[in-house]
Sequence to fold (611 residues):
Amino acid sequence: MPDAAAHLPFYYGSIARSEAEEHLKLAGMSDGLFLLRQCLRSLGGYVLSMVYNLQFYHYAIERQMNGTYAIAGGKAHCGPEELCEFYSKDADGLCCTLRKPCNRPSGVEPQPGVFDSMRDNMVREYVRQTWKLEGDALEQAIISQAPQVEKLIATTAHERMPWYHGSIARDEAERRLYSGAQPDGKFLLRERKENGTYALSLVYGKTVYHYRVDQDKSGKYSIPEGTKFDTLWQLVEYLKLKPDGLIFYLRETCPNPNMPASAAPVPPTHPSVTAHPRRHLGPLNADGYTPEPSRTCPGKSRLLPMDTSVYESPYSDPEELKDKKLFLKRDHLMIDEVELGAGNFGCVKKGVYKMRKKQIDVAIKVLKSNNEKTVKDEMMKEAQIMHQLDNPYIVRMIGVCEAESLMLVMEMASGGPLNKFLSSRKDEITMSNIVELMHQVSMGMKYLEEKNFVHRDLAARNVLLVNQHYAKISDFGLSKALGADDSYYKARTAGKWPLKWYAPECILYHKFSSKSDVWSYGVTMWEAFSYGQKPYKKMKGPEVISFIEQGKRMDCPTDCPAEMYTLMQQCWTYKWEEHTVENIIRSYYYSIATKTENGPETEDKSKATLP
Ligand code: AMP
Fold:
């Protein structure tokens, strides 16, 4: 899990007890002086170090299986911050209340722990191998789905590791370890026949040693007296670094002979990938999940963006790339009569595009046949912009087709516009689901900023959904590529502009920059967190301008988290860049992913609102 205490000024990360005491000494040893540090013995846990009567006290804070935090014998809290807040009012068994935080000296960041880098590496390897991703696609998948991937890893990852031998007896484990070379540290993990618990078998000095793996009441794994871990994989990874009570550390995998080499070391444990790589998406069902075969993952699972056919470009396959051209052949395009929507240019129809190796679902923007040349030119401009973009959180263009009319062929995002989706599903969609989607939008916008493009029409109506948990930015009709040395685009004349989404600089000076896109992102956030309501109610464009000029801003939508409203307000200062916004919403999204019992994807709104 991402570190739920990372944002706290009195959190020092992975420091030793003696170091904590040193900090408290330097800060004056007053009663109730406290700091928080990472627990080295239990994954995801913390230690509260404090002072009373010139003495040090250290309390372990455990992270329980349901995601809450508690000091042994104390009340459970949804996060370390809430826990500290509680103990600042009520000692409830501690030496005294928490009175004064011992904050980190300026310039000192929390110390990353061995668990942090291990966890990051695991997520990276898992994503790389499960979805066969590299480069930017890999980085984006890690950033956007880390909380979900960690959950997948936690439950099943060890089962397909080459060192995992399944349910075999002790003598069979010995037979496997003694076959071939027997270097010190050669190991395997097996399930014990007796009661479904696990054991580690390890070679040292040509002898095999067996260690029972215990599981405590909260489900954490450890070797007797050893460090506790949420997953068997983490346990093994840790024991590769540190013997932690074993006779020798784990060094060399004894590969399971029954596991195909291609599966190692991290094969797909995500069932949709195993069964249906890159399958086509159907319509959303009542759950917002596309219909799919039954899953093997325990608990309610769902499609991740990487499971869909539109996470990577269809041209990421080098074979398909050979055919990539701006203009598509008409006979490769089948156009359905079904209309997905209508825009300024004409209508958007459903279709299928035949590629070299596969057929893909597409949305086709069809220009009205009676349109004048300027409209045609505008559509070609939009196509030229989209042609240069390739990001999982942006609707990609497949190409342009000039036949009975000019057509812009795009990836399909069958869930429709975000505002409509949210207003029609108000009772089902949770706030954390909205945070997740808006984080994805911020990732798409950050990409645009990096490529030096301005969107100029970001609004909830132009965020399309692939499914309930996957959003893409669309409609590049007003977008511009900035010159290499320019930080903004200056429009010569005003056009038919979405004024309610525009920063004053756009309206007054016709200046468009990443900062004005951030302003629009703030309005889009407001729309999303108010479930698709129209911004600035019944006000007309000019009224909105004077409202903003008076320093007024829209109110916080009902039930919108305070952190998200603060971020909106910051977007409306015209000072912020998209990468800062992405960072902030990412931290918030990760922090709620650690607090919600089953993470943002399974939080049940109907249950959450029951008395
Ligand atoms: P636009 O002209 O870009 O504003 O699109 C008009 C409407 O067509 C949108 O609001 C969507 O409902 C639909 N639409 C546009 N692009 C797509 C797409 N790539 N996938 C699915 N529906 C789309």
